[in-house]
């Protein structure tokens, strides 16, 4: 059962660690009125809900939930990535993936489901258990599962800590129960005993054993800058770049 809109707003305010005074100043409303909204003594308008959720940086999916809880219709559409309305988005993502070759890149949704990938990703997933590659493929599960990439990750302990910390922050920021479940699952996987980062590392590297050697990557995440659609907001491109010249040369050689 959906909680009252005031309760949900209070939960989001507390999640963002803001006091009523701080939020009321940011939203340019009185603290008294905000208090009445949170306790159910005042019914917020749809404009008020949108103003508060904007200040609280609430994801679009949850903004629609708050509007419904307040008795209003959702205002943010949720298109299908394979539908005609998001064709331009889909084509742009595919162009980025292909343009990034010969280096790996994937498109994921909010729950880290792989929606698209370029050809070099196959180099990373070689040898993983078939059941982990059956759709829907979760890239975090694929990375840390004992039958996935984990046995090939030279710095598994370091990479695992990085992914779990990132997922924990995302779950806390969004309040998404599915992400909490994924975090619990991945935390239960073995952690590995990889070496500490090298002194010259400036980002957490992904070090993959390959053909008796090692491929080293760092990743960059890209999202849409001004989304107005729930699906588009939840898309991200995870691009892997070579962290040394040897990795770049090896990937170019494989492509050639």
TrEMBL record:
Residues 9-63 form the HTH cro/C1-type domain. GO terms for molecular function: DNA binding. It comes from the Bacteria. Coiled coil: none annotated. This is Helix-turn-helix transcriptional regulator.
């Amino acid at each position: 059962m959906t909680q009252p809109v005031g309760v949900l707003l209070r939960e989001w305010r507390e999640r963002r660690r803001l006091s009523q005074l701080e939020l009321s100043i940011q939203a340019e409303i009185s603290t008294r009125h905000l208090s009445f909204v949170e306790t159910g003594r005042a019914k917020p308008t749809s404009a008020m809900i949108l103003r508060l959720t904007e200040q609280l940086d609430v994801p679009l999916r949850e903004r629609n939930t708050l509007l419904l809880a307040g008795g209003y219709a959702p205002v943010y559409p949720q298109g299908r990535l394979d539908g005609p309305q998001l064709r331009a988005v889909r084509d742009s993502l595919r162009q980025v993936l292909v343009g990034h070759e010969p280096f790996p890149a994937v498109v994921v949704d909010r729950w880290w489901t792989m929606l698209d990938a370029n050809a070099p990703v196959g180099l990373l997933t070689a040898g993983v258990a078939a059941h982990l590659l059956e759709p829907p493929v979760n890239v975090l599960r694929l990375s840390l599962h004992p039958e996935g990439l984990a046995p090939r990750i030279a710095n598994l302990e370091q990479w695992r800590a990085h992914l779990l910390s990132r997922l924990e922050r995302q779950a806390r920021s969004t309040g998404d129960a599915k992400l909490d479940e994924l975090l619990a699952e991945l935390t239960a996987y073995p952690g590995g005993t990889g070496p500490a980062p090298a002194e010259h590392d400036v980002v957490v590297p992904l070090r993959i054993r390959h053909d008796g050697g090692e491929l080293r990557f760092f990743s960059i995440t890209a999202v849409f800058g001004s989304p107005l659609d729930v699906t588009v907001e939840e898309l991200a491109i995870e691009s892997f770049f070579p962290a040394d010249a040897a990795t770049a040369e090896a990937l170019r050689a494989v492509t050639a």
